[in-house]
Amino acid sequence: MPTDIRTLELKTPVDIAQYLFTRLYQLGIRSIQGVPGDYNLTALDYIPKAGLKWVGNCNELNAAYSADGYARIKGISALITAFGVGELSAINGIAGAYSEHVPIVHIVGQPSTLSQRDHILLHHTLGNGDFNVFSNMAASVACASVKLTDPLEAPTLIDHALRECWIQSRPVYIALPTDMVQKKVEGERLQTPIDLTEPVNEEEKEEYVVDVVLRYLHAAKNPVILVDAGAIRHRALDVVHDLVEKSNLPTFVTPMGKGAVDETLANYGGVYAGDGSNEGVRERVEAADLILSIGPLKSDFNTAGFTYRTSQLNTIDFDSDRVQVRYSQYPQVRMKGVLRKVIARMGTLSNVHPGPIPTNKPTISGTGTPTNSSITHNWLWPAIGRWLREKDIIITDTGTANFGIWETRFPKDVTAISQVLWGSIGYSVGACLGAALAAREAGENQRVILFVGDGSFQMTAQEVSTMIRQGLNIVVFIICNNRYTIERYIHGWNAEYNDIQPWNHLDLVKAFSGERGRTQAQAQVQGQQPFKTRTYQVRTRTEMEALLSNPDFSSAPVPCFQLVELYMPQDDAPAALKLTAEAAARRNAKA
After folding, report:
1. How far apart are CA 583 and CA 286, in angstroms?
2. Which letter does DSSP use for residue 580 in this model?
3. pLDDT-derived band of residue 188, with 50, 70 and 90 as boundaries?
4. How far is CA 590 from the centre of its chain?
5. Which residues contact 3 (CB under 8 A, 6 or more apart)?
6. Are 124 and 83 in contact (CB under 8 A)?
C-alpha cells in the first residue's frame, strides 16, 4: 500500500514530485487530468501517494478541456502531459483557459537535464537539439513558466507558480525533467501554506476611487449593475451578491456572466448582449445613466457582434486589477477592495428611480400545450429553464447552445459553463467531464447537464468513455442538425465543408461502456453502487416534454450517465446567434 505523503514527517527531505503534488492537494485539487507518457511516468507514481486521483483522459486536448471545466467549479485544477507531443496536443485547451482567465497548473514531464544539456537526439523532439522550443510556445499562454532544474530552487519556483496561477486566475507551466522527480528538497516548507491572499490596494488610492464611485452613484437617477465574466473568474461573486442585494439596483449579466447572479432575485433583469438581448433588457440597460460594469470582457460573441449601445461616459468598469471611471483609469486598484467600501458607505440611494425590471421573456413562449411540431430554439430554452433545478451545472458548447442559453431563466445557485471568448468547438465535452468530477468531489449530488451540437460532439466524443469509466452523473443532450450551424450562418450556407457525417450517438454509449457495462449484481459484489447508462431520442415537442417530465430521467439514480439525441431543424438557430454571425460575416467581408 503506498504511503500517504500527507502523513510523512515533513521535516525530513521529500522528493520534488512529492512536494509538488502535496502542494496541489493543499490547494484543494483532488483529481489530476492527463495522459501518461514516458517522460512523466515516474512522476505519476506520486499521485496516489498525495491523496490525489488520476483521471486518465483519452487525449491531451480533452484533458486540457476537462481541467478547464474542473477549475471553473473547484477554483483551480492540474493537468499532466508528456514533453512535445503531449503538451502540444493540450496547448489549444490551455490557450482557451488563458484567454478566459481559468487557473490550470500544467505540469510537463521533460527529458532529463543531462539529455537537454548535451542536446541528445531524442524522440518527441524536433531533431534539432532545442529542448526549449515547446516551453517557449507555452510561455505565451501562461502567467508563469518555471523549469525545475535545481533542487535548491524547486520549492520556491513551485510555490511562486502556484500562487500566480491562483492570483491571476490563469494557467501556469511547470517543467519537470525526469531526473528531478526524485531529487530531495526540504519538506518542512510544506507546513506553511502558500500565501494566496490578493495584493492589497494602496490605501490612499483606493479611498480616492471609492469617493469618485460614490459621487457618481449618488448623482445617478437610473443606474444599473452589469456583471460579466471577470467577476466569476476572479472570485468576486460574494461581494457582487452583497452589492446587488443591498443596492437593489436593476441587475443584468452578459452571456459570459450567465449564472453569476441569483436569477430568482426581484431586481434581476436578464442577459444583456446589445442587439442580441431581449427587447426589454436592451432598452433598460441602454437607458441607464450609470452602468456599474463588474468584470467586463467586451468580446464580439459576448456583445452579439459589438452591438452594445452604451457609453463609456456612463460606465464604471471594475476589474481584477484596475478600476475605470468613465475615461479615467486607476491601475493597480483591485475591484474587490473598492466594492466592499462602496457597499459599506453607499447608504440609501434615495435619488434612484429604477422603474420596472424586464421580465426577459422569450419572443416565443415555451409555455402552452406541447404539440408534435419540431423542436425549435425559441421553444426549447424556456422549456429547459423550467426543467432545471437548484445547484445544477449546465455546460453549453460554442454554437447554437451557447446563444440559446441566454433565454433560459435559472433557478437559484445554477452554475453555467461556456467558452464564449475562445470558442473552441468541442470544448464542452471535456469541460463537462471536469465539472462532473469536481461536482462529485463536493458531494452534493449535483446534476451536470451538457448541450452540445452534433458537429461539436464529433470533435471530442471520446471523453464520453472517460465519463462512463469514472461513473459520473451526467446528462448529455446532443443537438442533431447534421451541420456546423454557427459556421453556416457566418459563411457557406450550402457549402459541403459545413456538413458532417451523421452518427448513431445512442450506440456510442454501449461502445464506450466496456467493463462499465457490468451487471448490478457484479457491482454489489464489489461493494460499489451499480452504474447505469440510459439513452433517449426526441424529435418533437411532445416527446421532449414527456422526457423532461419523466422522473426516471430527471431524477435518475446516482450514478447514471444519460444521453439524448435531440433533433432540430437544420436551418433553426437562436436569434442572437444569427445576429452575431451576420456581424462576423460583415467584418470578414471588410477584411
Report:
1. 20
2. H
3. very high
4. 32
5. 49
6. yes
- Cα–Cα distance, 445 to 558 (Å, whole number): 8
CA distance 259 to 412: 9
Q: What's 540's DSSP letter?
A: B
Q: Which of 485, 482, 474 is nearest to 505 (CA)?
A: 482
Measure the CA–CA gap between 272 and 279, rounded to whole angstroms: 10
Q: Which residues pair with 185 in a beta bridge?
A: 14
**One-letter identity of residue 322:** R
176 bridge partner residues = 109
Question: Per-residue pLDDT averaged across 363-376, rounded?
Answer: 61
Find how far residue 493's CA is from the centre of its chain: 30
Cα-Cα-Cα-Cα torsion 565, 429, 96, 501, nearest 10 degrees, comes to -50
HSE-up (13 A, CA, CB side) for residue 222: 11
pLDDT for res 252: 97
DSSP 273: B
- At 50, give phi and psi (nearest 5°): -90, 5
Q: Give yes or no for a contact between 392 and 415, defined as CB atoms under 8 angstroms apart.
A: yes
Burial 99-129 (b: 16+ CB within 10 A, else e): bbbbbbbbbbbbbbbebbeeeeebebbeeee
Dihedral angle of Cα 542, 543, 546, 548, to the nearest 10 degrees: -110
Kindly report the CA angle at 456 between 481 and 435, in degrees rounded to 5? 125
Q: Which amino acid is at 484?
A: Y
Q: Which amino acid makes up residue 580?
A: T
Q: For residues 104 and 83, what is the distance between their CA atoms, to the nearest angstrom? A: 17
Segment (H or E) for 175 = strand 172-177
User: Tell me, what's the pLDDT at 376?
Assistant: 95
Which of 290, 289, 307 lies closest to 298 in space, CA to CA? 307
In angstroms, the CA 466 to CA 581 distance is 33
Q: Is the pTM of this model over 0.85?
A: yes
Please say whether the beta carbons of 80 and 33 come within 8 A.
yes
